[in-house]
Amino acid sequence: MRLVFAGTPAAAVPTLHALAADHEIVGVVTRPDAPLGRKRVLTPSPVASAAEQLGLPVIRTARLDEDATARITALDADLGVIVAYGGIVREPLLSAPPHGWINLHFSLLPAWRGAAPVQRALIAGDAELGVSIFQLVPALDAGDVFAMRAVPLPDGATAEVALGVLAADGAELTREVVAGISAGTASAAPQVGEPTLAPKLTLADGLLDFTQSTSTVFARYRGVTPEPGAHSTLDGARLKILAASPASDAPALEPGELQGTKSSVLIGTADGALEVTRVQPAGKGAMNAADWWRGLHAERTVRVGA
After folding, report:
1. pTM assigned to the model
2. Fewest CB within 10 angstroms: 148, 204, 244, 294, which?
3. For position 249, what pLDDT does the model report?
4. Which parts of the chain register pLDDT below 50?
5. How far is residue 291 from each of residues 208, 226, 253, 265, measured CA to CA in Å?
6. What letter does residue 198 receive in the DSSP assignment?
7. Burial class (CB in 10 A: 0-12, 13-18, 19+), 218
């Protein structure tokens, strides 16, 4: 089949590669190059880079406006496939391909419709994450589902790790669905259950509340790592928490109280402690948490979040 593919981040790249192996990709739609790093170097999106390596034509656009719609429609694709493009497909573009558009979404729909499904699922402490491929409709992530699959994740996986696993598994599932659409054997069914929403995360979502249980604090850490980043405050300054896990056999600490060890820093929670191995204090680079603690020369009880 002739496909048009829309996506932007690294999580969309496995699907682009999988589909390019089986079908003719007549165009790749992605967000414009963006300034990255301290020097703000203009950098192509991961999907743009992958498309160029595959020799595929690329349309860079921040929104699917009238001009972008005309350019994409002119590609005469049979089906559109979208994976985390970062924009909304509206009519008449939605109905331009004969088979419409399908979307790979990183949740078990109707759970976590929206921009940050993996992050929100981890923060909520969901025991099971997965992927869904559905028919794109005007309503947010509400179309009929062609396929859905729960995906096992490594213990303690952060959002970054989880998304990488889901992206690989979702690419193969999308490949199967597109093959079924091409063969005329694919069918989709309405979503079942009460929807939950997954709005985009803000910096405030990364704030850890150590008056909560260890499992709740760790769930939030997983969901906001690496973006927008887990953090607390110490003496009024933000302290980024880059690597952490639940502590075992921790001493009794008050919520937010810090205690250094040879290789880490313990932070008390409502029922235990979080073991932190890497931090980034305000105005400094990332460093080993134990080294940071020794540099504090603390002779007082130190608490974060106070």
Report:
1. 0.94
2. 204
3. 85
4. none
5. 22, 21, 21, 9
6. -
7. buried
